[in-house]
Design goal:
mainly alpha; 44% helix
Length: 85
């Protein structure tokens, strides 16, 4: 795939409705034929686990910041499919 056609473009990986992680756990359950549950993990404990596993500090900071943003519903956006074509 040649990435040149994507340079300077913005893509919004969203859809026509807003869903939470419990919804996605249900969807995975249906697809896999077994129960999948979502459990919210406090960011600090997850951060410590990443550090203990030897992940680079810059990566841990990036993932931690992203996790906090997601938890605050920073990516809770909807996109009209017709507008995103």
């Amino acid at each position: 795939m040649n990435p040149h056609s994507h340079i300077g473009k913005t893509y919004h990986p969203t859809g026509p409705q807003s869903e939470n992680m419990h919804f996605y756990a249900q969807e995975y359950s249906k697809a896999l034929g077994r129960t999948i549950t979502y459990q919210d993990i406090p960011v600090e404990g997850w951060r410590e686990g990443l550090l203990q596993s030897g992940q680079p500090l810059h990566l841990v900071k990036t993932f931690t910041t992203l996790a906090i943003y997601i938890a605050r519903e920073g990516f809770d956006r909807m996109t009209d499919r017709r507008a995103s074509r």
